[in-house]
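Can't paste images in this forum, so I'm doing it all in text. The chain is below; anyone willing to post the predicted structure tokens underneath?
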Amino acid sequence: MNNKTMMQYFEWYQPDDGLFWKRCAAQAEKLKAKGIDMVWLPPAYKGTSSADVGYGVYDLYDLGEFDQKGTVRTKYGTIDEYKEAVSAFQENGIEVVADIVLDHRMGADRTEPVLATPMSPTERNKPIGKPREIQAWTGFDFPGRNNQYSDFKWNSSHFDGTDLDEATGEKQIFLFEGKEWANETDSENVNFDYLMGANVDMENPEVIEELTRWGNWYYDQIHMDGLRLDAVKHIRFEFFRDWLRRFREHAGRDIFAVGEYWSGELGKLLHYLDVTENSLRLFDVPLHYNFYNAGISDGAYDMRNLVSGCLTEQRPENSATFVDNHDTQNGQALQSFVPEWFKPLAYAVILLRNEGIPLVFYGDYYGIPANDTAPVFNLGKMVMIRKLYAYGEQRDYFDDQAIVGWTRGGDDEHEDSGIAVLMSDSGDGSKKMEIGKKFAGRQFFDVMEKCIEPVTIDEEGFGLFGTAGKNVAVWVTEEAYEKIRVEV
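Text version of the structure:
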């Protein structure tokens, strides 16, 4: 992907003011100048209310156009504003990655009587009661849209389970009569097909046909450059392999795709990629947990293992790396927010190494006012260094429990390229690292401004690079150092 950097351009606690798409359009030119090449935008269709972040999906065909769920706009704005934001990004050379949520539906227009069996929440294949009739929220008629774009109506036959009997108020996982959970989903809770709301039956031919039709319609409306696929571990694994093939055939190009398979177990991610024939990337959740565990260990983590046991190590061509996202924010379902002191170290790993496509989180770049979270120190500098100077052969020095680093030797295509990175999760330190004989006699400076004295490269291409304790130092040539100080 030629050193591309993607940004998740939203966080959970943004205001429900309908102005988000306008803010996107206004920032597009500046983002490109700062080194951002791709933006992952939030789900753009109508949820259960105007405040819905986008994961409580009501109507996939309503992109902020129809008066439904008490609002015309979504949390982010109207359909016209969405299209204008996408155009602004693309006109500035930024690829747009659209978030799609196909696993479940919420906010149905009516209930239906359904024969269903209550299932164990921890052993989803185990009944804990007899089949009985429940009132399930499974009727989706979309009266506000009045058949525009699609006359497809969802009913109980298109779902295989839910979590509420409206007649009694009982909250329980119910499996509909005549249905089975998909065999190939994550094995957590024995079978993790069911996630929330009305669970879409991904083996129903009508559902497959409708979701294929919708995907083609969505592409024709927006012409996105990529897709972020939500909750893939809860969806029959073969589904996206086949759906993406049809979507790409319709688009006539190899659309980028990255899936969210939330598991810290590397084997599960590799299995999913095998089943889907490597047709997409996955976010490297094991690497995220390495960062989180290193941060909360407060100096007791073995830094030699920082990039081990993760997807990026095993299958970098299918990896998208990240530090945090909207789900790991404090107060969210997957809360595992990397401690502030370790964030610069984690971002150095994903931005300044040569494996995977890195994701910069909006909340880390701009801060999160809702809980007084400040932007990550010098994150903008590291994004720019990736774009301009993080090229060439990579030499790793993960050989010490506390202090680790690597160098990039630079290349002829990128002027002044070549960097050295050293980090410590405890005390100050230094390490002799090779960056290349072509740099002999040249001086390198720490753009993170933690190490004041320059490093001079010896005749064999080595330098004694240092770092401050619980920090990361990013060393670049004197010429690159001066440019970065001006650019950022």
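The longest strand covers residues 110-118. The chain has a mean pLDDT of 96.
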